[in-house]
Write a structure and sequence with these properties.
A nine-stranded mixed beta sheet has the order 2-1-3-4-12-11-10-7-8. Strands 5-6-9 form a three-stranded mixed beta sheet. The chain is 26% helix and 34% strand. The chain is an alpha/beta fold. It has a single domain, classed as 3-Layer(aba) Sandwich (Rossmann fold), CATH 3.40.50. A hairpin with a 2-residue loop joins strand 7 and strand 8. Bound molecules: glutamine (GLN). The site of glutamine has 11 residues, from helix 5. The site of glutamine (GLN) has 11 residues, from helix 5.
């Protein structure tokens, strides 16, 4: 099975490290050729305006959209969820999102005082419940969730981890927390279940 990390901009190195911790050697994906070689893809956090512009410049936007529509599993953190979202609370002319994940987001929603903060995130994945440390960095807030979207994690009363079929997306950064690997492990299982070939 080959898992890729979109290596355009942002914290790809920390996802790389986290995946290696659970026995996966990820491929950095910058081109269409590399995208073809992966069975699942991580969309890291960073700056969504930059990522969205470069996706277009590299000619990757449409092929990425198509692969996700065809069922390729993706794990998206922070700017990654912004790249996937269908709706925003206001016009975001700088972000040409792929419009695949049925949530409404408010970018940079936690205000200046709390631009970056840590807080407890309650997870409920496959009926296993636990609380992990969520690191939020100029995070968006999920303010509406469509019918086909399942909530798997919450900070206070906000959903912060959601799944819609092959898309697993969150507003915080599990790659920054060493003591828990459950989200990346769950994603690897999604890729295996999808029939990710072993290489
Ligand atoms: N605020 C950033 C954006 O809008 C996201 C920040 C992050 O990925 N940590 O793209």
């Amino acid at each position: 099975m080959r898992i890729g990390i979109l290596a355009i901009q942002g914290d790809m190195d920390l996802h790389h490290r986290k995946l290696r911790m659970i026995g996966i050697s990820p491929l950095l994906v910058k081109t269409e050729e590399e995208l073809k070689r992966v069975d699942g893809l991580v969309l890291p956090g960073g700056e969504s305006t930059t990522i969205s512009k470069i996706l277009e410049r590299y000619g990757l936007r449409e092929s990425l959209k198509k692969r996700i529509e065809e069922g390729m599993p993706v794990l998206a953190t922070c700017a990654g969820i912004i790249i996937l979202a269908k709706k925003f609370d206001k016009d975001e002319p700088e972000v040409k999102s792929l419009g695949l994940l049925d949530v409404k987001l408010q970018r940079n929603a936690y205000g200046r005082q709390r631009e970056s903060f840590e807080g407890p995130v309650r997870l409920k994945i496959n009926d296993v419940e636990k609380t992990i440390t969520g690191i939020f960095i100029r995070a968006p807030k999920i303010i509406e969730v469509g019918k086909s979207v399942e909530e798997l994690g919450w900070y206070e009363s906000d959903p912060v981890l959601v799944r819609q079929g092959n898309i697993l997306a969150m507003t915080f950064h599990p790659e920054l927390v060493d003591e828990d690997n459950s989200i990346h492990e769950f994603f690897v299982k999604m890729v295996e279940e999808k029939g990710g070939r072993n290489v």
